[in-house]
Design goal:
This protein is α+β, with helices and mostly antiparallel strands. It contains five helices and five strands; from the N terminus they run βββαββαααα. Strands 1, 2, 3, 4 and 5 form a five-stranded antiparallel sheet that branches. The two termini are 34 Å apart.
Length: 202
Amino acid sequence: MEHPDHIDGWWFSAARVLPHGDGRRIEIGHTHHVHGTITPCENGLHLSVNALDALQYAPGDIIWRVRGHGTVVVKRDKAACSDRTYLRGGIDVSDVLRHFARLCALDVISLWDAPYTVRQYLRTGDPRIRDAAWAAAGAAAGAAAWDAARDAAGDAAWAAAWAAAGASNEIQGASVLKEQGKPFFFLPMFGINDPSELDAPA
């Protein structure tokens, strides 16, 4: 395991307070600290350098750009730290993740005879027909469709994470892109026109 003095990365939360009964409020520019031996998955404030890795541990849809420091222990795809500072973010990306999931499902819809309701939901995302679409998919395709749906959902999560990783790269290289007059590609998918918007408190 590595022990750098600090590490920047991504972290997802389900709310604007720390989880697991901690309850401390999360705010841009604020640093949280935990005591004790720092061990990934056991004790520490976590993050992942790659947004794709952070997404697989995500308890919710609020994304944060963070810096881990103090005691830092890196283990494969995540790090645990004694201190974590919230640099940017606090953005709920649930709509973006659902949108990507629907697009990925549409990419493979030709592999089965999807009912009209399912196709309609995947095209529109209309929450009023979501339950009916799930019921229709189950009735029409049975166990094989659910296996395919699970696979498509996994693929959709990866696609969404790649978009988040792309947005991460654009945030990190924002000054270079601006200097070269190149447009942002991934950030607009998250409703962000300029990385400076992430500096504003949520």
